[in-house]
């Protein structure tokens, strides 16, 4: 229930949105316009690195924060194998350009059913009457990230911002009855544990999970509250070590809990945290996250993630605030929510850390209660985005037809950047990147702001090439950076978890780094020679495929791609290749709308044939 001060954070997702597109009139160019026709929805499997579906297989591991988003292909982040899962009713977007019906999302898995299945987390924890930690924090955190959260109450506590005044454990047989009620009926994806007050409750939980397997188990070994009050019997430690850890996909102790699990070994340095992570991993869990929010003398919030092979040092800014009650519960619940949405483990942890970071920062000055440990505002996104309907998260299907503007080409054809963006969207572009190398900053911001209004009225995300300052100034949906630009991890710190970040990559190593840095997608190329970048080394179709197969992120191909060769690109046999990015094929043509429709038709036909 209570946890590491300043424990770190993460990211989220918006609900799947269906885009309305209209199409009317073929002419474009200088005055070529068109509208979009509403597309009919079809059902599709969830996308975005979904963990394997087999009951009890565990989580493959861990984008993106806010409300969860259904996606198309499943890429298991740990094995690299592709898995699909039949989630009834999750809808892929489909639009119609002209008389045909091109599907914007790669039709990797078709599923039936009429409703949308939400990611489902079950929290098994204590109730906090002050609502800062325990099941109350778990439910709020999961809801903020778009996951449904059911609960099994293991104890009822009387507590507030001063401390814990009383603990009333729930009888073990009634804990078992609650578990059975939820697990046998409600399709739980991930179980997250918090306060388990006795070894008997631990045994009941283990027995229930053997009878009703779930995809992942997140164990937050809560033993002492943030205020220092004991919340579990000392014998519970043996239950964790002897039974529960062997079933856990991740264990998330803070430094005090890690010390207790290891028999009182002191943890005073980051090196001690590395050693503790390995020692706890030896007790059976697949992954360990040792949280350093309570590490003495540290200016940063440092967490150590260990998967049994590789260590990751996750850094976050330490927020100076009294409102740290429930940070550990929140972090573990966010990890569970992200896993339930299908993210790989490391990404789920990164997203969770970012979420807590933002919640701490937003909540640092709120006043609730008179004690030393105030709660977080888990629903801060409702406040920051209640009047901002345009706030959205990344959907890999947006990469389908990726239009990259070019100022030189716009001048050649005597068209404004706004007219070019409008025409490309009317022709079926699913995402826009503004690449402007010559305009003054003020001029660029003004044009980008006008383009954003057009994109958001059509439900199309708009990214800025390289210029994070411009993206911030005009509130763009994100940025795309190259290998020589600002690293994605720094861009993520500046932009926050709600923005889209893409990275140009030519090699599998660069793709791996982009994923580790928190990017949402990679752009791979140039696939073919192109006039827009004279000295750009081409990777060819084989190079593109090797990057796709190595990448844990969705990929968009770029470089010399047009109507003639787009089909060959989409047919390389890489499930995470989600579309093509084009420059000259659209913007160095007299009629952007017409060319966009042609290219979209080619892409749609290639995907339709691949699904047969």
TrEMBL record:
InterPro entries: Aldolase_TIM (IPR013785), HMP/HMP-P_kinase_dom (IPR004399), PM/HMP-P_kinase-1 (IPR013749), Ribokinase-like (IPR029056), ThiamineP_synth_sf (IPR036206), ThiamineP_synth_TenI (IPR022998), TMP_synthase (IPR034291)
Pathway annotation from the record: Cofactor biosynthesis; thiamine diphosphate biosynthesis; thiamine phosphate from 4-amino-2-methyl-5-diphosphomethylpyrimidine and 4-methyl-5-(2-phosphoethyl)-thiazole: step 1/1; Cofactor biosynthesis; thiamine diphosphate biosynthesis; 4-amino-2-methyl-5-diphosphomethylpyrimidine from 5-amino-1-(5-phospho-D-ribosyl)imidazole: step 2/3
Comp. bias intervals (Low complexity): 53-62
Keywords: ATP-binding, Chloroplast, Kinase, Magnesium, Metal-binding, Multifunctional enzyme, Nucleotide-binding, Plastid, Thiamine biosynthesis, Transferase, Transit peptide
Top-level taxon: Eukaryota
Pyridoxamine kinase/Phosphomethylpyrimidine kinase domain mapped to chain residues: 128-372
Main subcellular localisation: plastid
Reaction equations catalysed: 4-methyl-5-(2-phosphooxyethyl)-thiazole + 4-amino-2-methyl-5-(diphosphooxymethyl)pyrimidine + H(+) = thiamine phosphate + diphosphate; 2-[(2R,5Z)-2-carboxy-4-methylthiazol-5(2H)-ylidene]ethyl phosphate + 4-amino-2-methyl-5-(diphosphooxymethyl)pyrimidine + 2 H(+) = thiamine phosphate + CO2 + diphosphate; 2-(2-carboxy-4-methylthiazol-5-yl)ethyl phosphate + 4-amino-2-methyl-5-(diphosphooxymethyl)pyrimidine + 2 H(+) = thiamine phosphate + CO2 + diphosphate; 4-amino-5-hydroxymethyl-2-methylpyrimidine + ATP = 4-amino-2-methyl-5-(phosphooxymethyl)pyrimidine + ADP + H(+)
Essential cofactor(s): Mg(2+)
GO molecular function: ATP binding; hydroxymethylpyrimidine kinase activity; metal ion binding; phosphomethylpyrimidine kinase activity; thiamine-phosphate diphosphorylase activity
Listed Pfam families: Phos_pyr_kin, TMP-TENI
GO cellular component, one term: chloroplast
Residue ranges occupied by any Thiamine phosphate synthase/TenI domain in the UniProt entry: 401-586
Compartment list: Plastid, Chloroplast
Residue ranges, annotated region (Disordered): 1-101
SUPFAM superfamilies per the UniProt record, alphabetical: Ribokinase-like (SSF53613), Thiamin phosphate synthase (SSF51391)
UniProt keyword Ligase, yes or no: no
Gene3D superfamilies for the chain: 3.40.1190.20, Aldolase class I (3.20.20.70)
Family statement: Belongs to the thiamine-phosphate synthase family.
HAMAP family with a match to the protein in the record: TMP_synthase (MF_00097)
Job of this protein: Essential for thiamine biosynthesis. Bifunctional enzyme that catalyzes the phosphorylation of hydroxymethylpyrimidine phosphate (HMP-P) to HMP-PP and condenses 4-methyl-5-(beta-hydroxyethyl)thiazole monophosphate (THZ-P) and 2-methyl-4-amino-5-hydroxymethyl pyrimidine pyrophosphate (HMP-PP) to form thiamine monophosphate (TMP).
UniProt-recorded name of the protein: Thiamine-phosphate pyrophosphorylase
